[in-house]
């Protein structure tokens, strides 16, 4: 047997194994552990062990495997390798031990070799820092081979179940064996060695530990979190300044420069999970810190593992909170880190399979955009919309631009140049871009098109003084965008209708019916769907063209009205003209609005009276999610729709009620029926009351209430034309609102207490009515005032007096 060995000259030479090594090897093969142990304990063999450590290590390590575990031979070899570590030529033994670790394919052998490695590294002179780096790097190389736990998309406390995953348990076992080894080097007082130790401690926080959950749930910590905290504490024993590690990352050699992923997880633990946060200096500028850390978030977001992505989103949220009250300068965008971060973040938003993660990333996206001042925001929007190939995200970005623009209108005198004139038109050219003109795929581009049209319509209605200069560009948009869009809608609708007809007429049986069709998102093929599913998709696509046509028609009407109003400079004329569209088009859009509002109500118990509910409702009936832009008042439109339709349902109930019922009984049953309509939404009803209490919504709220009580009184047989007419209606309105408030707090079964409360209040109202009738409170002024209230209520709602 021959071995390669490194001589003092630095050259590799070939030499034969000594007789001592051969005897040890033969005895181990025979299982003669007593002889081997005796030979190693004999002090006369110390020189043989020292001179032959290079040869002995592979001989002994051959038996440190799981196959020999729990045997005397395994225990013997554990003792032998420790003796070699104590008595060998340290540098020579280190090289052989590194080779054994790097080529190792069993955790059992790896864990046994850690203690000898620690001893050998401790014996090497402090100035030989390269030896320490080589030894710890071998450990890191072995760890990098570990498979991460499976992406199970666990949520909340479910993540604690990761500790039961086989791969996670293996990682935890290896790290538990590693921590004592690194602790031995933390207390070294030689700066060069400490820098090496710090590097590899931080590296340990990277792959594979980064794939384990490190959150705390109700005070419960995962095993991965406990180990990560221990490692973080060890790093802080060496340095208490995280920024110093960033500077090392940027300037130092490979020997002291830690891996980016490890640094990213370390910063996540400190700034998101608050581990050792009290030890961190608070003197650094938040902007400098944000800029310096951005590449760390990118590193986490680029890892194809859900846990790492969640760490990245948590870290960026923590950094954004640091600069929440600071408008970041556009000059920061000169760094390439921002471009890489945006690319990584948008990929998470578009492609991540977990909906909660996509929403969290989208929230980060919005906060990131809003953290910059106007110039930086403009540059981000322009470059993102120029480079993105996902219409949904472009549409979302356009909407964020519209929101910022709305804030700029609060003071038109100081409006930023990035929201008007050439800058605005430059952005509009990006927003209103049809890559293939009328031949563009409008279904794929629908979110972007609808968002762009909503922005333009908002400008046409809001900017009556042409503060943004938008009226100077509408004619250019007509030629370069609207004309192609109209033709594109017509062509697309005809194409889809023809495609539907062809598929419907195709044979229902046979191989053709089993044909699959791919679905592509932003150029990436995601899945395949069956023919029947594609038919449903094609039919729902037709509604997209309806929405685009509707918004475009309204936009053009507003533009035409605005140009017509230029001669009179009458803003009122512009508003009235824009609202007076043709009866057919208005009815068509009202139908779409009503359809979306009705579909949104089932989502209210979960999402509240909000744009989110409107978005979910639009999506459920085949309209683009961005269709919520059709409802300028958001949740208020949804509440009013519910109130109005509920009043209409009540009228139908009243029409079927027995006419023989006494008026008080009928009124009680009517109020009870109307209140029961609130039950599915009762948890969210305080929100509805708050929304309708806002000044712009009060007239409609009052109108729906007064219309309801008027209907109740009418069908209760009240045909009076004197002052009693008004007293009864005002009384019932007061009883209804009082009972509504009581109902929201009622926990009784079937709301029994509420109905008792209603009965008592009605009795009191009757008594009050009798008192007023017997008094002289019948002045013409009061009568005219009450009459005006009810007439106004019906006019607000567009109702007439015909029953």
TrEMBL record:
Q: Name one GO cellular component term.
A: mitochondrion
Any one GO molecular function term: ubiquitin-protein transferase inhibitor activity
Keywords from the UniProt entry: Lipid-binding, Mitochondrion, Transit peptide, Ubiquinone biosynthesis
- The residues the entry assigns to the signal sequence are none
Q: Which residues form the Ubiquinone biosynthesis protein COQ9 HTH domain?
A: 589-619
User: Which residues are in the COQ9 C-terminal domain?
Assistant: 698-768
Q: Per the UniProt record, which residue ranges are transmembrane?
A: none
Q: In which pathway does it act?
A: Cofactor biosynthesis; ubiquinone biosynthesis
Short name of one Pfam family for this protein?
COQ9
In its UniProt record, which GO terms are filed under biological process? ubiquinone biosynthetic process
Query: Where located?
Result: Mitochondrion
- Tell me the InterPro entries matching this sequence: COQ9_C, COQ9_HTH, Glomulin/ALF4, Ubiq_biosynth_COQ9, YAP-bd/ALF4/Glomulin
Mitochondrion recorded as keyword: yes
Q: Is Cell inner membrane a UniProt keyword of this protein?
A: no
Q: Which family does it belong to?
A: Belongs to the COQ9 family.
**Summary of the function given for this chain in its UniProt record:** Membrane-associated protein that warps the membrane surface to access and bind aromatic isoprenes with high specificity, including ubiquinone (CoQ) isoprene intermediates and presents them directly to COQ7, therefore facilitating the COQ7-mediated hydroxylase step. Participates in the biosynthesis of coenzyme Q, also named ubiquinone, an essential lipid-soluble electron transporter for aerobic cellular respiration.
Family annotation (PANTHER family): GLOMULIN
Recorded protein name is Ubiquinone biosynthesis protein
Lineage of the species this protein comes from:
Eukaryota, Metazoa, Ecdysozoa, Arthropoda, Hexapoda
């Amino acid at each position: 047997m021959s071995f390669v060995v490194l001589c003092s000259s630095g050259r590799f030479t070939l030499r034969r194994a000594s007789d001592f090594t051969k005897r040890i090897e033969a005895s181990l093969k025979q299982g003669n552990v007593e002889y081997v142990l005796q030979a190693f304990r004999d002090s006369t063999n110390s020189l043989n062990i020292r001179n032959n450590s290079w040869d002995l290590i592979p001989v002994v390590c051959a038996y440190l495997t799981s196959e020999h575990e729990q045997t005397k031979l395994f225990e013997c070899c554990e003792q032998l390798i420790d003796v070699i570590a104590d008595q060998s030529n340290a540098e020579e033994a280190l090289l052989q031990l590194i080779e054994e670790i790097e080529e190792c394919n069993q955790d059992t052998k790896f864990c046994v070799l850690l203690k000898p490695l620690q001893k050998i590294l401790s014996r090497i002179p402090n100035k030989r820092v390269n030896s320490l780096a080589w030894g710890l790097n071998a450990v890191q190389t072995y760890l990098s081979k570990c498979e991460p736990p499976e992406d199970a998309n666990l949520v909340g406390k479910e993540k604690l179940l990761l500790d039961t995953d086989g791969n996670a348990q293996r990682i935890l076992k290896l790290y538990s064996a590693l921590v004592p080894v690194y602790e031995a080097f933390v207390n070294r007082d030689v700066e060069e060695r400490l820098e090496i130790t710090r590097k590899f401690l931080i590296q340990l926080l990277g792959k594979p530990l980064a794939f384990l959950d490190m959150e705390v749930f109700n005070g419960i910590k995962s095993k991965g979190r406990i180990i990560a905290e221990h490692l973080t504490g060890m790093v802080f024993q060496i340095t208490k300044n995280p920024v110093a590690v960033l500077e090392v990352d940027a300037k130092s050699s490979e020997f002291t420069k830690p891996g980016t992923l490890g640094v990213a997880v370390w910063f996540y633990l400190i700034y998101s999970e608050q581990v050792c946060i009290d030890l961190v200096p608070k003197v650094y500028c938040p902007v400098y810190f944000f800029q310096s850390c951005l590449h760390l978030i990118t590193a986490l977001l680029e890892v194809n593992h859900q846990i790492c992505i969640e760490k990245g989103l948590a870290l960026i949220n923590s950094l954004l909170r640091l600069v929440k009250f600071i408008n970041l300068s556009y000059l920061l965008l000169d760094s390439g880190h921002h471009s890489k971060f945006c690319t990584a973040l948008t990929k998470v938003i578009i492609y991540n399979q977990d909906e909660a993660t996509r929403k969290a990333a989208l929230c980060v996206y919005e906060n990131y955009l809003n953290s910059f001042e106007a110039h930086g925001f403009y540059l981000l929007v322009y470059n993102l919309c120029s480079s993105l190939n996902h219409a949904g995200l472009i549409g979302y970005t356009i909407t964020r631009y519209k929101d910022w623009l709305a804030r700029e209108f609060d003071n038109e005198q100081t409006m930023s140049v990035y929201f008007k004139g050439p800058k605005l038109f430059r952005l509009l050219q990006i927003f209103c871009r049809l890559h293939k003109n009328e031949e563009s795929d409008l279904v794929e581009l629908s979110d972007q098109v609808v968002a762009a049209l909503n922005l333009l319509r908002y400008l046409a209605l809001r900017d009556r003084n042409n503060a943004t200069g938008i009226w100077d560009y509408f004619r250019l948009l007509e030629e370069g965008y609207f004309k192609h869009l109209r033709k594109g809608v017509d062509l697309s609708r005809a194409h889809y209708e023809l495609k539907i007809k062809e598929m419907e007429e195709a044979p229902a049986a046979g191989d053709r019916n089993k044909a699959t069709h791919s679905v592509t998102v932003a150029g990436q093929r995601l899945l395949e769907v069956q023919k029947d599913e594609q038919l449903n998709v094609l039919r729902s696509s037709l509604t997209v063209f309806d929405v685009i046509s509707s918004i475009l028609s309204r936009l053009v009407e507003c533009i035409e009205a605005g140009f017509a109003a230029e001669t009179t400079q009458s803003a009122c004329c512009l508003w009235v003209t824009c609202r007076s569209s043709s009866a057919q088009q208005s009815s068509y859009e009202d139908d779409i609005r009503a359809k979306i509002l009705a579909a949104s109500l089932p989502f209210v118990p979960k999402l509240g009276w909000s744009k989110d509910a409107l978005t979910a409702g639009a999506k459920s009936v085949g309209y683009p999610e961005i269709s919520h832009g059709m409802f300028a008042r958001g949740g208020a439109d949804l509440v009013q729709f519910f109130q109005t339709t509920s009043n209409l349902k009540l009228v139908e109930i009243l029409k079927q009620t027995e006419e023989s019922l006494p008026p008080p009984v009928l009124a009680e049953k009517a109020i009870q029926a109307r209140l029961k309509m609130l039950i599915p939404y009762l948890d969210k009803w305080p929100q509805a009351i708050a929304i309708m209490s806002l000044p712009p919504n009060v007239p409609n709220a009052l109108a729906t209430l007064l219309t309801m009580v008027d209907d109740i009184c009418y069908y209760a047989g009240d045909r009076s034309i004197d002052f009693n007419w008004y007293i009864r209606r005002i009384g019932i309105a007061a009883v209804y609102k009082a009972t509504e408030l009581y109902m929201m707090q009622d926990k009784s079964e079937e709301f029994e207490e509420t109905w008792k409360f209603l009965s008592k209040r009605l009795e009191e109202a009757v008594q009050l009515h009798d008192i007023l009738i017997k008094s002289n409170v019948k002045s013409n002024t009061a009568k005219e005032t009450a009459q005006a209230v009810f007439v106004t209520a019906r006019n607000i709602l567009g109702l007439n007096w015909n029953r």
